[in-house]
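Subject: Protein entry, chain in single-letter code together with its fold tokens

Category: Structural biology, sequence-to-fold work with a learned token vocabulary.

Notation: Tokens come from a learned vocabulary of local backbone shapes, not from coordinates.

Start of record: The labelled sequence and token lines come straight after this line.
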Amino acid sequence: MTEPSLIAVFYSKGRSFLDVLRTVRQHHPGARITAIVPPGYPMPPEERAAADAVTETGQARYGACDGAGLIRLARQVRALRPGLFVITFDSPKLELLAAWIGVPAAWCTFDGQLVPIRPTLANVPAHVVGRHLRGRTTYAGIWLATRLLRVGPKPR
């Protein structure tokens, strides 16, 4: 894979954005990094130094019912022409955004890896259903184990 010339890193609440920016810089030292943050985000000096450019989104939050806002956001990121779009979590909402943007995408793991993802508008719902079924199956296995397996000495 060729080195991307511009990488867009999308801010998500709940994760150290500085760690994500540093991970991207470590994996792609020659690329320009653009941090995409919500409007009014108080970007600390360390984060500002880790990114080559900062772009603010049009809104602070985007919801599933805000189709026009999501389309504007996707167009805004597409206009940057990034060679790679990095999200901080592998959530369905962020994967859908990556699919709408139409550039190669990756998500940053907690152990500092960039994992390539290939989201499409068709496979994101399948991914959601798969996660749901895997979670339900795991829960059912735990429920059965706690009710059917004996713990401790047998009663006399």
